[in-house]
Amino acid sequence: MDKLVFFPALAVHIATGFLLVAVGLVPILSRKGSRLHRWSGRLFVTLMSVLLAAAWVMTLLRFNAYFAALSATATITLFSGVRVLSRKRPDLDPRQRAKLLDWIATLAVLAIGAWVLLLITQGRTGGKAAVSAALVYAALTYGGWDLWRFLRPMAWPFSPSLWRYEHVLKMLSAYGAVISAFSGNVLTFLPTPWSQLWPTLLFQPMAVIWIAVLILDRKRQRRLAAA
Q: Signal peptide position in this chain (predicted)?
């Protein structure tokens, strides 16, 4: 029974992973808000959902601390990156605040992250302690941030544009998780753990730079509108 479920899930996971490496570039490179950006973004989310469903099935069947940490991080970034689009203005519309589903997903990821962190401290992550620790740090950071936003939706650093920056950061992180898994399994000529860590070192600064550009552009637009 294990093999009848595990290997089909693995095949789906691998196939969608290869597709996502290419598909994920389209919303990154396309003009934000354009039809291509929205369409490719929906395709990315659909494929990521399939990939993560397969990943969680495999994790349940054959538990691996690293795989659980990677799945948890990719899940919270994808889920929250999409959900934040429906929580743009909690200051104007109370319906745009966190729902029960948001709380359940975030708390579940935090619990998984804490569990894997315990396994790391006990030396039960095999040869992937460094990568697992980096993934757990990401999962706990994103989960903790979301809890703060749920509890205090209009507290610092809220602004009417905050959802844009959250969306960019989280979706880039979700794509980074895909590239991390791809690199670790395909680019085997790179030394470990850097074969799986370099996407984080690339995409996190990229997200910060992108957000800075967005902030500067919005300030420029406001100045032009006021002139």
A: none
